[in-house]
């Protein structure tokens, strides 16, 4: 990556409000000794509830969107909200739901995911039958289909997924379970985009249907894994395994 290709540095600010699922307003920090200006609009990549994170006054970091040198911008907002401070102000949470797939894809390509030792990354965003999965790995000519789930909600060290009802997530689990029953290797990898995580669990109080589907998938032979991340304004790093209860 050249300097011209590198993304612009993040800018700190304070969360103000969330008018809709994909839009936030943020007060950016100004120069020392100068007041903040008017709120700017920032795209929110995570459509989840995020009620414990997106609280007025909470510290955040946004990424400026490079403006085209010619022609009209491709999007309305000039910023993307990427990090939110944890409720206890001890760290940061990534709210970029596309990031786990990118991190896992890179780690798989480099053979750095011990849960899949011996497997080689074949393709991303692959269709099988009527289903579409995040990754297909191969070993000795046999496939493994992998789904990656981004996790942001944490209560007392326990990461919970989902933070809102997810019919799509339940469908993925049922499809993976069907493949597992047919003798095809399948797996789910939950990636908690924060460091304050000891374990991961289905959020039964939020989506009991998903929790039941996860238990059924595990019984059918779907491998269930979890990871956490080190998150800071300098970057997000995939860390070691955590148990999925």
Question: What's the arrangement of secondary structure elements?
Answer:
Elements: E1 11-20, E2 23-28, E3 40-43, E4 59-64, E5 79-85, E6 92-94, H1 99-109, E7 120-128, E8 131-139, E9 142-151, E10 153-155, E11 158-161, H2 167-181, E12 185-192, E13 199-202, H3 208-220, E14 223-232, E15 235-241
Parallel strand pairs: 3-5, 9-12, 11-13, 12-14
Antiparallel strand pairs: 1-2, 1-4, 2-3, 4-5, 5-6, 7-8, 8-9, 10-11, 14-15
Helix pairs in contact: 2-3
Spatial gap, N to C terminus:
39 Å
Gyration radius over CA: 19 Å
Number of domains: 2
The CATH architecture of the largest domain: 3-Layer(aba) Sandwich
In oligomeric terms, what are we looking at? Answer: single chain
Q: Structural class per helix/strand content?
A: alpha+beta
The residue fraction in helices comes out at 10-25%
Mean pLDDT: 91
With strands numbered from the N-terminus, the spatial order across the biggest sheet is 7-8-9-12-14-15
Number of helices: 3
Number of strand elements: 15
Largest sheet geometry: 6 strands, mixed
Question: What's the CATH first level of the largest domain?
Answer: Alpha Beta
What's the CATH topology name of the largest domain? Trna Endonuclease, Chain: A, domain 1
**Would you list the SSEs in sequence order as H and E?**
EEEEEEHEEEEEHEEHEE
Strand content: 35-45%
User: What global shape is seen?
Assistant: globular
């Amino acid at each position: 990556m050249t300097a011209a290709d590198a993304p612009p540095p993040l800018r700190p600010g304070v969360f103000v409000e969330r008018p809709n699922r994909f839009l936030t307003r943020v007060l950016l920090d100004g120069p020392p000794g100068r007041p903040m200006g008017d709120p700017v609009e920032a795209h929110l990549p995570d459509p989840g509830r995020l009620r414990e994170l997106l609280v007025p006054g909470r510290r955040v970091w946004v990424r400026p969107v490079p403006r085209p040198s010619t022609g009209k911008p491709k999007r309305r907002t000039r910023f993307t909200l990427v990090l939110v401070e944890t409720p206890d102000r001890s760290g940061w949470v990534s709210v970029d739901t596309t990031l786990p797939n990118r991190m896992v894809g890179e780690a798989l390509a480099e053979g750095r995911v011990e849960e899949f030792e011996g497997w080689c990354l074949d393709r991303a965003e692959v269709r099988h039958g009527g289903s579409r999965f995040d990754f297909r790995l191969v070993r000795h000519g046999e496939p493994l289909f992998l789904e990656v789930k981004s996790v942001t909600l944490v209560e007392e060290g326990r990461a919970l997924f989902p933070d809102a009802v997810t019919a799509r997530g339940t469908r993925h689990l049922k499809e993976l379970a069907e493949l597992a029953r047919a003798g095809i290797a399948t797996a789910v990898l939950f990636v908690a985009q924060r460091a304050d995580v000891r374990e991961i669990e289905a959020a039964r109080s939020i989506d009991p249907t998903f929790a039941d589907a996860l238990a059924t998938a595990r019984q059918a032979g779907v491998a269930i894994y979890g990871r956490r991340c080190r998150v800071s304004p300098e970057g997000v790093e995939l860390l070691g395994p955590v148990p999925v209860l």
